[in-house]
Amino acid sequence: METTMCSLSEVIRERKSVRKYDPNYIIPRHKIEEMLQEATLAPSSSNLQPWRFLVIDDQEMKKELRAIAYNQEQVETASAIIAVLGDTEMYKSAEKVYQSSYEAGFIDEESMKKVIQSTNNTYPNAPFEARANIASFDAGLVSMQLMLIAKANGYDTVTMGGFDKQKFAERFELSERYMPIVLIAVGKASAPAYQTTRLPLEEVVRFI
């Protein structure tokens, strides 16, 4: 995958939350797929990868989504909106995940069977809130990774937690298994992002 910057540090420093997008700029779907493929290399609890994505790039659909997202302009003007969902029943992917690791030669068959059994004994019995927290945390990891990858490819992003999640779930017919977590606008900026500062390091870090 091509990158436009030479170091991770530059990508991190250049990435800003952009809310003004060129409405005529289109990111090809294959490019979005490439970025998502790389983003899903993010870590997750027990490698169960409890993230799912809805990519909304149809203009009429974006217009409809804008109303659900409290009329935020970038929903309609960005090239695409990537909705990150959390899978609260991530344990149902255990056999597929660990079978794949076994076939790739990363674990032996005995270890595969043990970890599948352990997962199936643990996760289904965990409270829903605990599983929802895991899904939310892991979705945050993949979301941040996606935004950095997008910036490395010359695109701009902003995350949006401000949308009616119940209406979103109803409109896109999500089962109770999947919870909407965040919307990520991706496209080309049409105006500079607002600059921001950070708290001094001594106020947020303590060595013990």
From TrEMBL:
<dbReference type="InterPro" id="IPR029479">
    <property type="entry name" value="Nitroreductase"/>
</dbReference>
<dbReference type="InterPro" id="IPR000415">
    <property type="entry name" value="Nitroreductase-like"/>
</dbReference>
<comment type="similarity">
    <text>Belongs to the nitroreductase family.</text>
</comment>
<keyword id="KW-0560">Oxidoreductase</keyword>
<protein>
    <submittedName>
        <fullName>Oxygen-insensitive NAD(P)H nitroreductase</fullName>
    </submittedName>
</protein>
<dbReference type="Pfam" id="PF00881">
    <property type="entry name" value="Nitroreductase"/>
</dbReference>
<feature type="domain" description="Nitroreductase">
    <location>
        <begin position="12"/>
        <end position="188"/>
    </location>
</feature>
